[in-house]
Amino acid sequence: MTKPMKIDFVSDVSCPWCVVGLGGLEAALERVGDLVQADIRFQPFELNPNMPPEGQNIVEHIGQKYGSTPEQSAANRKAIHERAASVGFTMKTNENSRIYNTFDAHRLLHWAGIVGGQKALKRALFDAYFTDNQAPSDHDVLVAAAQKAGLDPQAAREVLESGRYAQEVRDAERAWQSAGITSVPAVIINDRYLISGGQPAEYFEQALRQIAAEG
């Protein structure tokens, strides 16, 4: 019997482990096949809510935030690139990449969740940032991602320029923080089960099968 599952994927578009986690979840859903009917909803979380639009160099930022040396930062990037490649995603971030403010990207994702195409937009935003080294704070980049996802680019630009959905995104961010989410990706299944981090497909598959059995 197919079990419907509500899956809230709390993440940021500038979070590399969120790419890995989404890839693992999607592969697991393919493996379980008809056992699970998943309704994935992408929820907002900002790793750097106070980041200015122009952003900050990634090595400088990681050094200030976590105390990492440039060598440690490079090693971590290499490891993440390898994990991303294992789920079929190409990351091209380097020592010259930048960390950006992602609030407008979350507003656009909220809109996509209403009109349809949220998953495709999430993928397009990951591509823009991690593969093409584009700024997710740039409205032209966001509109192009919306168009790539099959959404109306004029409607997307109107959402961005109007400031629409700002309150809804802020409220959602606060709600997830109040629920105890302090890092991403955080995958919440049926409002009850939490899976944290960029887990591999095997981990997600085991969890999905167990939750389906319990349900």
Number of strands: 6
Helicity, as a percent range: 40-55%
Radius of gyration: 17 Å
> Biggest sheet, strands in spatial order?
2-1-5-6
What overall geometry do the principal axes of the alpha carbons give?
globular
Do you know the CATH architecture of the largest domain?
A: 3-Layer(aba) Sandwich
Q: Structural class of the secondary structure composition?
A: alpha+beta
Explain the overall architecture.
It is a single chain. The protein has 215 residues and is an alpha+beta fold. It is built from 9 helices and 6 strands; from the N terminus they run βαββααβαααααββα. The strands form 2 sheets. A 4-stranded mixed beta sheet has the order 2-1-5-6. Helix 1 runs parallel beside helix 3 and helix 1 packs across helix 9.
Provide tags for this entry.
single chain, 215 residues, Glutaredoxin
Secondary-structure map:
Layout: E1 3-11, H1 16-32, E2 36-44, E3 56-57, H2 58-66, H3 70-86, E4 98-99, H4 103-115, H5 118-131, H6 139-148, H7 153-162, H8 166-178, E5 186-189, E6 193-196, H9 201-214
Parallel strand pairs: 1-2
Antiparallel strand pairs: 1-5, 3-4, 5-6
